[in-house]
Amino acid sequence: MSASPADLPEFLPFKLDLVGRRVLWLRLNAQQRAQAAFLDDRALPANAEGGWMPLDSLPPALAQGGPQADAIFHIGHCGSTLLSRVLSAWPQVQGLREPLPLRTLAEAWPQLGRPDSRLSDTEAPQLLRALWGNWSRALPPQTRSVIKATSGCNGLIAPLLNACGDARAVLLDMPLRPYLATLLKSPASVLDAASAAGERLRDLQARGHAADAALHALSLPQQCAMGWLAERVRFAAHAGGEHAARVLRLDFETLLTQPEASLQRLATHLSLDPQGVAQALASPAWGRYSKAQTHDYSADDRAHDLALAMQRHADEIAEGVAWVDTLVRREPALAAVVD
């Protein structure tokens, strides 16, 4: 590359290697970014242009200029990709979905302070700020970015709010029964939830709940329900915490049934032009499968699939709901989080 990627907004930090202390820069144009449901190997162009460079090729966040990107965090399989695509209906918004380095940081964060950690307590927030600053650079005519994280990155909500003082966060989830039905109709989705269950249980217990729960003793539906509860508790803590003014809770079912009101709330929270709500309501993303835009998938299609899943997996859904209900009876303070 003839110029440093730090000087070229066409390049994104695409992969992070903490062992080799290097970052992969990749050139992605506006169309490639808009099409990508995931900024991972599935987004690699046929003739990818980029290369590995040392971590210090990332300029400090203070050198970036411009507004900080805002964030979408979510519980997984709850419409976050649709939300990201709908937000891109505002002409100034660049949507970036699930950049890999964010996942790498999320995996590394719990190791901070340990002898085998690849990052020091000081380096980690500096690296997060530097990455976030680079992802915040939008390609003209867009002027700002909204980054959708992977559901396994929710442990970075607090670090992001602490490290990136202007960034705002949207926390997206949905009620328990449709969440369980959505997962259970897809074995891959259940696997995703099960792989996150360990971290979610640790976070739930660190917040003072479900002290005697053991992951190995939970069935898959119970693990899914426990993970849902853990994220509800986490989201509620952030929405009522130190950075509450920069956090917006959003329910996916409400987004579908009351799209205009939901988008108005989003526009206010993210300082978007309220006149753009009408354009967002007309976005073709509402009628397509979010992760594969060539496939039609309307709200009616989703409702039909969800009703079938509710019937086919009624026993498993009931098992997960019962686990949460039992815990709420033991810990009544959780009732406000569940409702």
Structure in words:
This protein is α/β, with parallel strands linked by helices and 339 residues long. It has helices spanning 30-35, 80-87, 100-108, 123-135, 157-163, 176-184, 187-206, 220-239, 252-257, 259-269, 277-281, 299-312, 314-330, 335-338; strands at residues 11-17, 22-27, 50-54, 70-74, 93-97, 144-148, 169-173, 247-251, 288-289, 292-296. Helix 6 packs across helix 8. The longest helix is centred in the middle third of the chain and has 20 residues, at 187-206. The radius of gyration is 20 Å and the shape is globular.
The overall pLDDT, averaged over residues, is 93
Largest beta sheet, briefly? 5 strands, parallel
Strand content: 5-15%
Pairing-aware structural class of the strands and helices? alpha/beta
Strand sequence of the main sheet, in spatial order?
5-6-4-7-8
Helix content: 40-55%
Order of helices and strands: EEHEEHEHHEHEHHHEHHHEEHHH
Overall 3D form: globular
Total count of strands: 10
Alpha plus pi helix count: 14
Radius of gyration: 20 Å
What is the topology?
Layout: E1 11-17, E2 22-27, H1 30-35, E3 50-54, E4 70-74, H2 80-87, E5 93-97, H3 100-108, H4 123-135, E6 144-148, H5 157-163, E7 169-173, H6 176-184, H7 187-206, H8 220-239, E8 247-251, H9 252-257, H10 259-269, H11 277-281, E9 288-289, E10 292-296, H12 299-312, H13 314-330, H14 335-338
Parallel strand pairs: 4-6, 4-7, 5-6, 7-8
Antiparallel strand pairs: 1-2, 2-3, 9-10
